[in-house]
Specification:
alpha+beta; SH3 type barrels; Rossmann fold; 7-stranded mixed beta sheet; 5-stranded antiparallel beta sheet; 30 strands; 21% helix; ADD_DNMT3A; zinc-finger
């Protein structure tokens, strides 16, 4: 029902004008029904002049004769005068505003007879001299609601009344009826009659609803009434450009603090990160289409997508009555809890893939409470940095709850990037001011490969995904936006980049993606001789920019490491090394290649094959001390002092390529802290100014948070070095340390084998100049989208031989050929090792400090 309209009223003559400028209004709504014997339910109000509305027939009957009752509504506006006239008496001069009847559902039976319900709403205000405006209603039993302090205390009383069939009066029948308690409804402030403007409306008080606090009153109109479906609270899939189908929930426009969605669109709040988008209904699907929209590769590689799936299925399970244990999804849980969460997630996915049985799609419908646009925002969907807004009433400034919440960072609807790119084409906007990955205007740096900018969120995605490769050797995600469901892979055998269809059509030109698909082979925008493709322009200095991007991507500032002056040649001593996670003794091999004398080389290693290689190739130069977790301070003091501490903890639980990774604080990720502990023990004591160096290595494709944590403990930022610059294979790694000149450019030496052909045996031909990153998996040898072997021999494709892989890594031929190890075992050893040319690049400055 629309509230009564408040307009400016004319001045009244007499003393009342000078004493009161604000009219007090009272509304009394009486819903009445005539009984079969013509008794009037408003007998007590015979003296009140009012306009009776035409009767409105009400469906159904309330007596055995089958006669229908008609309801009438009378609204009486009353105001007290200063001369103590009663509130009822003052109604004689007041015109009545007639409102349509409000249907009241249901009836109740008493002594076998049906009762019609009536609503008697009385708005009352006390006069200045303490007289009650409801003196005429003293005999009506009703519960008085808590008052709200305003200009005058106002009270609201809702009385449910029913006429009995035995001639009971409407007022008398109220004695046995319980009163429904509602909070006071605030009146609008009245303006001074002489004022030409209307006063601003005060904010409505919060309404208690269970344990939650809701702000505002019910809206006048309903949202999303265009007949296209997808109402408030429904669980849906949405398709944004550059992303897989993503689960979300339809929400009211009040949550977004934006205007109502246009016809044919819906506001969607995404599970996983809690962000908001305005979506066309054509790009929405119900959650019941799970088997068609769920994308397993994205689930395996993106933690946010896994979290979104977990949350939406947990919500759907609650609605459908599916007994899934409720628990919070987190990437940092104890090992047992992580397995439990993953097991539960797989159970939910199986339930969703089989049609949400037994209730089916109907069980996913939102309950009535969630269809209310003023229901509190679903807090389980929001990240701490993207909490919800409170829901303000329309056309008013947003209110803040008593508990302050952080606000949404940014809302980017689906068409933002398209609209901005159109403005760039029309030369109304500079592309350097736009994040070409997502369309955000909140940019922080330049895109390293193409002309354009990048926001912080896309920067983090680029850091994680730029060196993440699928089993076919290509990047897992688009080079431009680090997303995309359908991607185009470069036909150049030496390139591993891919581009999503959405980015190509938007930045290069409509239909260019389809043209690229039909072109075979298709050279990507990083491989072509020309550099301009529509709005996509390759930077001329992209190689140096990419290296600087990873070198300067640090959000944390640390003190620069201590610099040691070079030692005079006559004072240089042999180096003493502590190698943790030693592998196949790459560190010792490089030191010997550089000619640096090694006094002591203590290595911690648990792999028997690696120990065998070290013992055979370096005779008794290595002292193996077993598991790093068993080394204590006493051991360090006994074996030391050390001049160089090196190591690289296992990357299995840190690499984002591993969908079951446990992170830095669980599984093998915790071994980093063993390195940190022993590094601290091996440092020179205070007052000892001898040169001391250290180096820690790990994979580039790790989570941004893990990289920040490692940097915080080591108190320095990493340097990213890719072995492709000095070898025939891609191998990007982060290096933390205090070695001199770690940031200097990587330069190949004369003897470095930069092409795969230089690493092959006679009679064999390389199909590629460089191979993808060689790991412990046998299929990492295959190259390209068609999974070709990298070598031709006798007109047939062939794998890399072990001796050829050793040359690719920079090791001497047959370095791992010990103890009758199989080809796969030797590949595992090499896949866990360091690239020799890269370590030589890092260790070369040590020649200025130690004897050669």
């Amino acid at each position: 029902m629309h509230p009564p309209t408040h307009t400016q009223r004319p001045k009244r003559d007499g003393d009342q004008q000078t004493q009161r400028h604000v009219w007090e209004k009272k509304v009394r709504l009486v819903q009445m029904s005539d009984t079969m014997d013509h008794q009037s339910a408003v007998g007590s109000q015979e003296d009140e002049p009012a306009m009776i509305l035409p009767t409105i027939p009400i469906g159904g009957s309330r007596d055995k004769a089958g006669k229908k009752f008609e309801k009438k509504v009378r609204l009486v506006q009353m105001s007290d005068t200063m001369d103590h006239q009663s509130a009822v008496g003052s109604q004689e001069d007041e015109p009545a505003m007639i409102l349509p009847t409000i249907p009241i559902g249901g009836s109740r039976d008493k002594a076998g007879k049906k009762f019609e319900k009536k609503v008697h709403l009385v708005l009352m205000s006390d006069t200045m001299d303490g007289q009650s405006a409801v003196g005429s209603q003293e005999d009506e039993p009703a519960m008085i609601l808590p008052t709200i302090p305003q200009q005058q205390q106002k009270k609201v009383r809702l009385v449910l009344m029913s006429d009995t069939m035995d001639d009971q009066s409407a007022v008398g029948s109220q004695e046995d009826e319980p009163a429904m308690i509602l909070p006071a409804i605030p009146q609008q402030q009245h303006t001074d009659p002489a004022s030409p403007t209307v006063a601003t409306t005060p904010e409505p008080p919060p309404v208690a609803c269970g344990e939650k606090v809701l702000t505002g009153i019910a809206p006048i109109h309903q949202e999303y009434q265009d007949g296209l479906g997808y109402g408030i609270g429904e669980l849906v899939w949405g398709k944004l450009r550059g992303f897989s189908w993503w689960p979300g929930r339809i929400v009211s426009c009040w949550i977004t603090n934006r205007g109502p969605a246009a016809e044919g669109t819906r506001w969607v709040m995404w599970f996983g990160d809690g962000k908001l988008s305005m979506m066309c209904v054509e790009k929405l699907l119900p959650l019941s289409a799970f088997s068609k929209t769920f994308h397993q590769p994205t689930y395996n590689k993106q933690p946010v997508y896994r979290k979104a799936i977990f949350q939406v299925l947990l919500t759907g399970g609650l609605r459908a009555g599916k007994p899934f244990p409720h628990c919070e999804y987190t990437n940092y849980t104890p090992e047992g809890k992580m397995e439990e969460n993953e097991t539960q997630a797989q159970q939910m996915i199986k339930w969703a893939s089989t049609g949400f049985l037994p209730s089916g799609p109907k069980g996913l419908e939102p309950p009535p409470a969630e269809r209310n646009p003023y229901t509190e925002v679903y807090p389980e969907m929001w990240e701490p940095e993207a909490a919800s807004y409170t829901a303000p009433p329309p056309a008013k400034k947003p209110r803040k709850n008593s508990v302050e919440k952080t606000k949404i960072k940014e809302i980017i609807d689906e068409g933002t990037r398209e609209r901005l790119m159109l403005e760039v084409k029309q030369k109304c906007r500079n592309i350097e001011d736009i994040c070409i990955s997502c369309g955000s205007l909140n940019v922080t740096l330049e895109h390293p490969l193409f002309v354009g900018a990048m926001c912080q969120s896309c920067k983090n995605s680029f850091l994680e995904c730029a060196y993440q490769y699928d089993e076919d050797g290509y990047q897992s995600f688009c080079t431009i936006c680090c997303g995309g469901r359908q991607v185009l892979m470069c036909g150049n055998n030496n390139c591993c980049r891919c581009y999503c269809v959405e980015c190509v059509d938007l930045l290069v030109g409509t239909g260019c993606a389809q043209a690229a698909i039909s072109e075979d082979p298709w050279n990507c925008y990083m491989c072509c001789s020309r550099s301009v493709f529509g709005l996509l322009r390759r930077r001329d200095d992209w190689t140096s920019r990419l290296q600087l991007f990873f070198a300067n991507n640090h959000d944390q500032d640390f003190e620069p490491p201590a610099l040691y002056s070079p030692v005079a040649p006559e004072k240089r001593q042999p180096i003493r090394v502590l190698s943790l996670f030693d592998g196949i003794a790459t560190g010792l091999l490089v030191l010997k290649d550089l000619g640096i004398q090694v006094d002591r080389y203590v290595a911690s290693e648990v792999c028997e094959d690696s120990i065998t290689v070290g013992m055979v190739r370096h005779f008794e130069r290595i002292t193996y001390v077993g598991d790093i977790r068993n080394i204590t301070r006493k051991h360090i003091q006994e074996w030391g002092p050390f001049d160089l501490v090196i190591g690289g903890s296992p990357c299995n639980d840190l690499s984002i390529v591993n969908p079951a990774r446990k992170g830095l604080f669980e599984g093998t990720g915790r071994l980093f802290f063993e390195f940190y502990r022993l590094l601290h023990e091996a440092r020179p004591k205070e007052g000892d100014d001898r040169p001391f160096f250290w180096l820690f290595e790990n994979v580039v494709a790790m989570g941004v948070s893990d990289k920040k944590d490692i940097s915080r403990f080591l108190e320095c930022n990493p340097v990213m070095i890719d072995a492709k610059e000095v070898s025939a294979a891609h191998r990007a790694r982060y290096f933390w340390g205090n070695l001199p000149g770690m940031n200097r450019p990587l330069t190949a030496m004369v003897n470095d084998k930069l092409d795969l052909q230089d690493c092959l045996e006679h009679g064999r031909t390389a199909k590629f100049n460089k191979v993808r990153t060689i790991t412990t998996r046998s299929n990492s040898i295959k190259q390209g989208k068609d999974q070709h072997y990298p070598v031709y021999m006798n007109n047939k494709e062939d794998i890399l031989w072990c001796t050829e892989m050793e040359r690719v890594f920079g090791f001497p031929v047959h370095y791992t050929d010990v103890s009758n190890m199989s080809r796969l075992a030797r590949q595992r050893l090499l896949g866990r090792s360091w690239s020799v040319p890269v370590i030589r690049h890092l260790f070369a400055p040590l020649k200025e400090y130690f004897a050669c």
